[in-house]
Backbone:
């Protein structure tokens, strides 16, 4: 945003997309001062309707609220949070939540970059490939999970195990074993979200400037050198943007887990989101459920702050 | 927009080039298989009889049957009409009613709100816009638990109106951010010209902004509908058997006693038909929609 000369247009002037309309303080504009609030009224009413349950929930997280035992309702201050810190299962689910997000984002960004480079190269049927990539993207995650659940059948009737048997791999108990459940979730999640990363990075690749590449061509840089020292740095803001969205969604992943393992086996895929759901809707401990939910919310919020900051810095670096 | 530099081979021996194109061919084939195979397999599964589904090794060749589709649509199972079964046509209808209702409500509130957020300056404008955006990232459970309690008390549990209200958590922030991004693309000059011609804000909105952003509104409408269609968490706990949408309906084929694989496959496929058709119309905007207008 360009700085504007104070004396000429006054301190209220704004240069940019918001434009001139804002700067004119004519009587007509002043008469319209109430207008944005009028326009926003229906939206704000709904917003209040959305925020009220949130604050109610935050309050419940400070109470011992059991749905079947209303008489036990008491304000317990931070009691739920203290109880939660002593619960070894909290540590397990926190570790799984963070670990899953980290691994999922890493896998999906690396693979997504590969797919984006592939779709960006001169290959026949590129448009068709791109359109095909959109199909998993708009699937309900639950249905995606169910589709894979069929393929991941543990016995030899599962098509995935059948195909792997040609490679000499024995039947894997995909969703039913502690070792493979998390991997299975990752595979399903990746199938649904790889296109998202790929398409963002493809858009990034297609918006890169020509000049550095021409210079590299003149200097006789190798293909790898061009990728490492030109493409990758220029693509950084896009990579971080895609990673940001993926981290936020991976921290909160629920639908896929619910439709496949429901957090099991033996809590192997139990993340904070699932744990909060169990607390609230299996044991009807609304207070504990909300405490888990608030921890997850804080986690997501912190992640968003960090990632948004990184993204802003990367975007500034590349445009300078 | 420029098409940008492509990763072109700078040169190399014919052998290296042949190796390169083979590598690309293998990668493309792997990508196609990875993406399409699950659809192919669910289609096969939906055409199988129960015994063919669990056959080991899995059967590629079998006698296809429409039994599963007949079961989910008219409740006919092996010549009998099942009494206790997931009422799939109803779930499908529920999805349409709830998604349409949610998007309609979001548009009613969202059009003026986006207009204000795109064109006017007022206190806390960016904070307000950011507040709407934050719903995109908040874990649903923070809303679901209190909503579950509130809905039970207010009699909104298992009703269309309750679900339409709950779906605002998904569709309203999306609608506001998408419409705002489309409204902001309209040059200010057009609007000022209309003002000089004597248009009030109402005239500007109805005669300039809305007609000029008609394609953008169509995209927002379709994508909003699709996101509502995908919703699973809220209806899982806030809907009952009479109001389940297809996403919750599809997992009803899994029970403690058995999994009706074939019917579940058929239901899953039918549940995504609207998504596959609608996404054809909004191909170029899906990423923009998923990022609430951040990535054009």
Residues:
């Amino acid at each position: 945003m360009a700085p504007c000369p104070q004396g000429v247009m006054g301190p209220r002037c704004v240069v940019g997309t918001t434009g001139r309309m804002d700067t004119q303080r004519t009587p007509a504009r002043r008469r319209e001062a109430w207008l944005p609030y009028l326009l926003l009224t229906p939206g704000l009413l709904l917003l209040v309707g959305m925020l009220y349950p949130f604050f109610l929930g935050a309050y419940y997280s400070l109470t011992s609220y059991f749905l079947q035992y209303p008489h036990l309702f008491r304000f317990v201050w931070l009691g739920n949070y203290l109880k939660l810190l002593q619960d070894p299962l909290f540590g397990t689910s926190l570790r799984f939540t963070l670990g899953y997000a980290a691994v999922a984002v890493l896998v999906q960004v690396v693979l997504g970059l590969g797919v984006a480079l592939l779709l960006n190269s001169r290959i026949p049927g590129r448009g068709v490939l791109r359109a095909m990539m959109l199909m998993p993207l708009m699937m309900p995650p639950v249905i995606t999970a169910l589709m894979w659940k069929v393929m991941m059948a543990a016995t030899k009737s599962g098509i995935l195990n059948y195909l792997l048997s040609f490679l000499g791999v024995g039947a894997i108990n995909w969703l039913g074993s502690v070792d493979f459940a998390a991997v299975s979730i990752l595979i399903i999640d990746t199938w649904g979200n790889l296109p998202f990363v790929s398409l963002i990075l493809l858009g990034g690749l297609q918006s890169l400037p020509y000049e550095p590449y021409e210079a590299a061509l003149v200097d006789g840089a190798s293909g790898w050198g061009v990728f490492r020292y030109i493409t990758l740095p220029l693509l950084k803001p896009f990579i971080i943007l895609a990673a940001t969205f993926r981290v936020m969604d991976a921290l909160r992943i629920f639908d896929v887990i619910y439709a496949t393992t429901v957090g099991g086996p033996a809590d192997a895929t139990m993340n904070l989101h699932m744990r909060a759901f169990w607390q609230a809707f299996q044991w009807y401990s609304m207070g504990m459920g909300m405490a888990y939910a608030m921890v997850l919310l804080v986690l997501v919020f912190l992640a968003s702050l960090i990632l948004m900051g990184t993204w802003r810095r990367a975007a500034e670096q590349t445009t300078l | 927009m420029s098409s940008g530099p492509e990763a072109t081979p700078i040169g190399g021996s014919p052998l290296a080039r042949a190796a390169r194109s083979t590598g690309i061919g293998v990668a493309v084939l792997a990508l196609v298989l990875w993406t399409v195979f699950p659809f192919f397999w669910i289609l096969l599964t939906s055409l199988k009889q129960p015994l063919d589904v669990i056959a080991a090794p899995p059967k590629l060749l079998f006698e296809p049957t429409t039994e599963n589709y007949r079961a989910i649509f008219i409740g006919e199972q092996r010549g009998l009409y099942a009494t206790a079964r997931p009422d799939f046509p109803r779930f499908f209808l529920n999805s349409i009613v709830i998604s349409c209702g949610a998007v309609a409500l979001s548009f009613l509130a969202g059009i003026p709100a986006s207009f204000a957020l795109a064109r006017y300056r007022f206190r806390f404008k960016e904070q307000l816009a950011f507040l709407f955006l934050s719903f995109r990232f908040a874990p649903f459970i923070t809303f679901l638990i209190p909503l579950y309690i509130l809905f039970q008390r207010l009699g909104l549990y298992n009703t269309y109106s309750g679900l339409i209200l709950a779906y605002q958590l998904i569709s309203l922030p999306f609608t506001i951010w998408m419409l705002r991004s489309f409204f902001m693309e309209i040059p200010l000059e057009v609007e000022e010209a209309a003002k000089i011609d004597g248009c009030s804000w109402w005239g500007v909105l109805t005669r300039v902004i809305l007609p000029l952003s008609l394609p953008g509104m169509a995209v927002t409408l379709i994508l909003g509908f699709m996101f509502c269609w995908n919703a699973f968490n809220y209806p899982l706990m806030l809907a009952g058997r009479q109001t389940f949408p297809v996403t919750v309906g599809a997992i009803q084929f899994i029970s403690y006693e058995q999994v009706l694989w074939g019917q579940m496959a058929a239901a899953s496929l039918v549940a995504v038909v609207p998504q596959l058709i609608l996404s054809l119309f909004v191909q170029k905007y899906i990423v923009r929609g998923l990022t609430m207008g951040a990535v054009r």
User: Anything to note?
Assistant: The CA atoms of residues 276 and 282 of chain A lie 10 Å apart. Chain A touches chain B through 107 residues (CB under 8 Å). Chain A is about 70% helix and 0% strand. Residues 286-319 of chain A form the longest helix (34 residues).
